[in-house]
User: What shape does this take?
Amino acid sequence: MRAPMVAANWKMNGSGAICREFLEHLSVDGLVDVVLFPPFLYTSRLSKGFEERSISVGVQNVFHARSGAYTGEIGAEMAVDAGAMYALVGHSERRNLFGESDEVVADKFVACQRAGLTPVLCIGESFEERAGGEAESVVRRQVDAVLRAAGIEGFANAVIAYEPVWAIGTGETARPDQAQSMHAFIRGVLMKFDTAIATNIKVLYGGSVKASNARELFAEQDIDGGLVGGASLEIMEFEKICRAASR
Ligand code: PGA
Assistant: This one.
């Protein structure tokens, strides 16, 4: 049985005041894993503050090397030191705005696991790729790069977030059946290597998840929760999404 998960990707949003508000007011109950991904600087504060509650904190990115002359970068071990338990890897904004290739993403995935962070591997096709009938082959290519670097065992302690790029921050959400079909495809790719790992891995949906559409998305068999951007900065909206996922 896969426990549902709802993750908040704050991107480069949030502030000390918003952290305080979340620490004072965020409350989730029921069976659902909740993970907040604030900008890196707020990791310690939130992870300490939420220590006693069942809310985890993650980072939005890491660099693949342990340490060295990489000005401005942060390593996975440093994220662990700051209290992070998860890391987003290969978010489409990292791939598209910062030029992260499939191979770089795979290196980061491996670096997270070496440090004891659970990677949340973000994959998904663009509008043009879907229109050209390439959605599945793009997602397959993104998964294959990680399989080459980490092996199927790498997916034993990882989460996947399917985020069609055309649905991120656009207000346009994949239809539940559309998302379900891609989630089943992703699980099917892993199934060829290891049935237990494929059955147990959480596959989240991301892309304009809101309280108003969360329940029908999460009702699909292979959708184990959501990675939420815009709607995760408003506590009440985010709590509703968590409730929609919780069992
Ligand atoms: P969105 O972002 O919910 O604002 O579409 C999702 C994401 O980028 O993870």
Remarks:
- Residues 122 and 133 are 20 Å apart (CA to CA).
